[in-house]
Design a protein that fits this description.
Blueprint lengths: L2 H9 L13 E10 L2 E15 L6 E8 L2 E8 L5 E10 L21 E3 L8 H54 L1
Antiparallel strand pairs: 1-2, 1-5, 2-3, 3-4, 5-6
């Protein structure tokens, strides 16, 4: 191991990034600092090249912004990268796909397969949550029906009280005459 490799190994921090190669569609979450504030900006595009190895490894992502192509290159261990998400795996036969620069529209598409990401919830938890949601909807419906019935009963009682008052008035009027 030569001196340069020793220095690179010393300063190289362990970075947990997903496996990706040329042709993959990825989203790079980039940390942007504006004054004192820091925010995350997404850069979503196709990887057109991955070069180097070890600490000197870098990759270039190309996206279309309107009708203009925008390319950004990052070192793999860059502190500006918050995280990387792989959206789809591209089927390409070259390691550097610069020919995309000359293509426009549908011609610039890459045949790809979607990447299935692992969900934090298991299927049983999802089913249980779905059942609980359905039961809560039914309970809300029952409460609304009961409230409607209470309102109808209240209206009926008021109507009966009005009729009783009218009957009393009619009876008192009949007695007076």
């Amino acid at each position: 191991m030569n001196f340069a490799e020793k220095v690179a190994k010393m300063f190289n921090k362990e970075v947990k990034l997903p496996e990706f190669k040329s042709g993959d569609s990825i989203t790079v979450h980039v940390k942007i600092t504006e004054g004192e504030k820091e925010r995350i900006q997404l850069f979503k595009g196709n990887v057109i090249k991955v070069q180097g190895s070890g600490a000197g490894r870098s990759f270039t992502v190309r996206k279309m912004s309107g009708q203009f192509g925008v390319e950004r290159t990052w070192p793999v261990g860059s502190p500006a990268i918050d995280k990387i998400e792989v959206f789809s795996r591209g089927k390409v036969r070259r390691s550097k796909i610069f020919y995309l620069r000359d293509l426009k529209g549908r011609a610039a598409r890459i045949e790809s397969e979607l990447v299935v990401t692992k969900s934090s919830k298991s299927t049983e938890e999802k089913k249980a949550a779905k059942i609980a949601k359905k039961e809560s909807r039914e309970a809300n419906k029952d409460v609304k029906k009961a409230a409607k019935l209470d309102k109808k009963a209240e209206k009926a009682a008021k109507a009966a009280a009005k009729k009783a008052k009218k009957a009393e008035k009619a009876a008192s009027f009949a007695e007076k005459s």
